Amino acid sequence: MQEQRGPEPGLVTFVGAGPGDPELLTIKGRAAIAQADLVLYAGSLVPREVIACARPGTTVVDSAPLTLEECHARVREVALAGGLVARVHTGDPSLYGALREQAALLDADGIPWRVIPGVTAACAAAAAAGVSFSIPGVSQSLILCRVAGRTPVPERESLAALAAHRTSLAVYLSAAHASRMAEELGRELAPETPVLCAQRVGWPEQRLVWTTLAELADCVAQNGFDRKTIFLVLPGELAAGSARSRLYAPDFGHGWRPEKAKGGPGKDGPCAGEDS
Description:
Structural class: alpha/beta
Shape: globular
Distance between the termini: 75 Å
Strand content: 15-25%
Low-confidence stretches: 264-276
Largest sheet: 5 strands, parallel
Strand order of the largest sheet: 3-2-4-1-5
Number of helices: 7
Radius of gyration: 23 Å
Order of helices and strands: EHEEHEHEHEHEHEEHE
Number of strands: 10
Oligomer: single chain
């Protein structure tokens, strides 16, 4: 007698919901939510509007009060029955999202999974404020980091160690430790270093407040900034001046545009596919 086999496990999709604005959810992420039989979302960080595209009758569960094992039990039940699951994370699942732990449990149960990236708060905050992380000749790197709290941070990744690079930093999950954040950054950066405090980026109640490193702790206290606040630390702005990208300089030739003599046409004429 042939053995009866159950349905093939359904796919679990980790969806990056972005910082809060439903319109920043990717088309692919929206489709995964709309097709899911179970939507498990981080309700403390993801607005309900982001998952409003779920089908009527779909089981929607807030993961905020659940443990990792309780979340997995919900996912496992649906996936092993052949259903589709959308595990919706704030921002991008790869950053502070416990992705590795969840994926390991899925692998152990033979459940397939994939990740759909999302807009992380650092990029959304920079867009909202109209700032650039990279400044030609001054800063060409961005470090995503956090203060050590209940979750420890290796000493080599302390804010002071990272600030020594004098490049742009996006500091997550650190509003509750504002004084220590300012103290650690202040070991390497000037007191007048500009800092953008961006709370609930992409939400209707979004707030953007500029301060300096010297005033950071007071600014956080006075404005009541909470865990939904990200801090963009931009030491490069102090030395930016009139720095301009070489990419569009007339004498900077590349495969799509020939080098041009000052005040004259390109040495070899227009590139193929480029307007003359």
